[in-house]
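Sequence, please.
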């Protein structure tokens, strides 16, 4: 174990996280029985967790169905940590500037999660990953690698310790690439998550803080893709800078 300690999974915490995600993904809410199947736990145990989550505002109950409550949003407000918000029109505009689909991405634990996308994706099977906000491995996506690179150093070390238990080669490669990612503020994934997809990510910032990433995605066709994505990122960065001035 490093001096920072490893971020090990905890069964109860995992169950709470799965319950909250299941409630968030169900517009009409979920029952305790449905949640018990999701977390593979006895209904009585899930009921105890649900009761506590309702009592603290993380869940709302209506007609014995549970939806996500306001507490997660309030905690973000208290912390001053605002999830990056870019309207659909803005994302579509950024996609036109770049000439590629654009994915707005945040880090959630050990995963990268796409919040929204702009433009028409030329790899159709990747569309549901964005539209359903499916978690993707940090070290296998351009956006995930960028977000990990700009995570607080102590937290980053703990995350890498945990990731190294499952994918030591990817962690070693990321550590080698880390100085270049931080210096250039650009990260790449050339077939890491999908052999057909190449991606480049640039940061979304709130003042000096990196709050998210924009991933530019293109079907891999050969060596020219890196140059194409470089030029797309340059156009996008210049456009963003011009709007700020």
């Amino acid at each position: 174990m490093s001096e920072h300690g490893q971020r090990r999974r905890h069964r109860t915490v995992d169950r709470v996280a799965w319950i909250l995600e299941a409630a968030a993904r169900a517009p009409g809410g979920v029952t305790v029985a449905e949640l018990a199947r999701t977390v593979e736990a006895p209904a009585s145990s899930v009921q105890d967790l649900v009761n506590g989550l309702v009592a603290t505002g993380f869940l709302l109950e209506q007609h014995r169905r549970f939806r996500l409550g306001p507490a997660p949003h309030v905690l973000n407000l208290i912390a001053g940590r605002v999830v990056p918000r870019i309207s659909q029109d803005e994302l579509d505009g950024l996609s036109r500037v770049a000439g590629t689909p654009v994915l707005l991405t945040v880090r959630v634990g050990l995963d990268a999660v796409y919040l929204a996308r702009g433009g028409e994706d030329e790899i159709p099977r990747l569309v549901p990953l964005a539209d359903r906000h499916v978690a993707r491995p940090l070290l296998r996506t351009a956006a995930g690698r960028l977000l990990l690179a700009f995570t607080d150093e102590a937290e980053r070390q703990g995350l890498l310790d945990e990731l190294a238990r499952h994918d030591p080669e990817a962690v070693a490669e990321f550590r080698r690439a880390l100085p270049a990612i931080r210096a250039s503020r650009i990260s790449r994934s050339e077939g890491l998550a999908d052999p057909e997809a190449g991606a480049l990510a640039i940061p979304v910032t709130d003042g000096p803080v990196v709050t998210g990433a924009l991933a530019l995605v293109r079907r891999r066709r050969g060596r020219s893709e890196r140059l194409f994505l470089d030029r797309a990122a340059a156009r996008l960065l210049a456009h963003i800078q011009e709007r700020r001035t």
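Residues 1-5 have pLDDT under 50 and may be disordered.
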